[in-house]
Amino acid sequence: MGKLTSLIRRAPRRFSAVVAMIAVAVIVPSAVLAWGPIRETFTIANPSDHVQFNSITDNPNIGDERNFVGIREATAPNVWKDDITVEPGKEYYVRMYVHNNAATSENLTAENVTAKFNLPTTTGKSLQVNGFLNASNVGADNKGNNGAYAEVYDHATFNSTTDFNLDYQEGSLKYENNAFGPNGTALPESIFTSAGAKLGYDKLDGKIPGCFQYAGYVTFKVKPQFAQTTNFTLAKTVSKHGENKWTENYVAQPGEVVDFLLQYKNTGDVRHDDVTFRDTLPTGLSYVAGSNTWTNTKTANVPVTTSNLTNGTGINVGSYLPGGGAYTIFSAKVAEKDQLACGINTLVNKGKVNTGGYAVEDTANVTVNKECKPPVVYNCESLSVKTISKTQYQFTTKYLIVNAQFKNIVYTIKDANGKVVDTKTTTSQTPYTYTQNTPGKYTVQAVLSVTVDGQTKTVTSEGCKAAFEVPKTPGDITVCELATKKIVTIKESDYNETKYSKDLSKCADTPVTPPVTPPVTPPELPHTGAGDNIVAVIGLGALVAGVSYYIASRRALGL
Fold this sequence. Notes:
Strands 1, 2, 3, 5, 6, 7, 8, 9, 10 and 12 form a 10-stranded mixed beta sheet that branches. The chain has helices at 2-9, 16-25, 529-557; strands at 69-73, 83-85, 92-98, 109-110, 114-118, 124-138, 148-168, 174-177, 181-186, 197-198, 208-209, 216-226, 232-240, 249-252, 257-266, 276-280, 285-287, 293-296, 302-303, 315-316, 325-334, 343-355, 358-370, 377-387, 392-402, 405-414, 420-426, 432-435, 440-452, 455-459, 465-470, 476-481, 486-491, 500-501. It is elongated. It is mainly beta. The protein folds into 4 domains: 2-226, no CATH class; 232-370, Sandwich (Immunoglobulin-like); 377-470, Sandwich (Immunoglobulin-like), CATH 2.60.40; 476-507, no CATH class.
């Protein structure tokens, strides 16, 4: 392409107008270009009666001549395509078909036949090559029409998944036809400029008669160029200590020592300098001092006297050409059982390799199982009270039990004074129906009992406490029943002062009177002034009573 660039740079000023025209006709967005322009078409049976290029639609060699630019891989069969995916190291042909469609009987020759190619010098994932073919007397016939300058065009596309450019292979540009033979004749690289390159039949004089006999092909070769890449890989694996059986996941025991392997390879196109390994150990793995070595094709098992591999500094293992590589090995110890969490512990070890500002990471896992007793949970979460009737209420307790066995729920009912009036126990896990006939305000608290390892555990909470009220019936009153010392509700019409008292304090708990021990009669009554008077009074009362009894009995007998 150096020659092509210099040709463009040396283009004389008189071509400036043509360059402007080509800038419009050639350098246009690839999405706009296809074959063109729209023109009259012909067939083999009915060729043109005037000078016209590439307009026969049933050409046995290429099909529709309007699609006259094609590409193919240099070593592939002679099958031309409109687009192709390029690969590194391969070369590709670009072809332009040239055919004056005028019938032989018309004896019409195209003048100043010129070919041009827009070969992009840009870089991208899709590059379009545009071909242009023109003559100065397109339309000339035997009826007096001298024709005029006209041009046809078509394109083909090179594609790739990565950026590339197209490099013209110097000396490959030629024109083939029946006169020049299969080896063809060389064409100037001006074909890649606005000037183009003159074609011809037996010499490059711009003259091409009509008919297949005088058709030809312009061909040249290109090679895709891909940017050199800094590609490399890292593979991280783990093994039981000393066994060298490398895997991405190893099942270890608490306290076991394992080995880790980090393998680097230069898979790019350029040399890598200062290749540096690093490793990040997770909680649960600790570096074994003095266990780190590294190896490449020139050295083996080079010891690393520091712990730089795992402390963030890293170890520098030198420079490597494409295809080269190195690896490093070190050991780590798994945490003891008491330092691990219950269940499956997945310890993810991350390795990294850096060079030239790029980095690649990979991981290997150590899996450790710590068996633990399952957690035991028993919570009393809430208690709700639903009124069923005037005296019946439904207690519903919500609770959470994990790895324990339900035993029972104890409901403690208290009155408005905080006195326990009832205790109910249920072994059913369904709502409990409770009956209370005495009107008043009450609270109920649920205590959940469970069995854990053969032992009974109880639990309650503020959420497992609720209130309810037994309403009074109109005309009822709450009184103290004197005989039973219980607070009861009766109809006000049944109230009797000898049976009931409206003073509820009379039903308050009374202390139990201790038994009285009979006094021992002393041999001599004590002489204590006030005591003598009391005795005297008692003795006088007895005497009066006796006399009265005697008189009454005598009257009864009629004496």
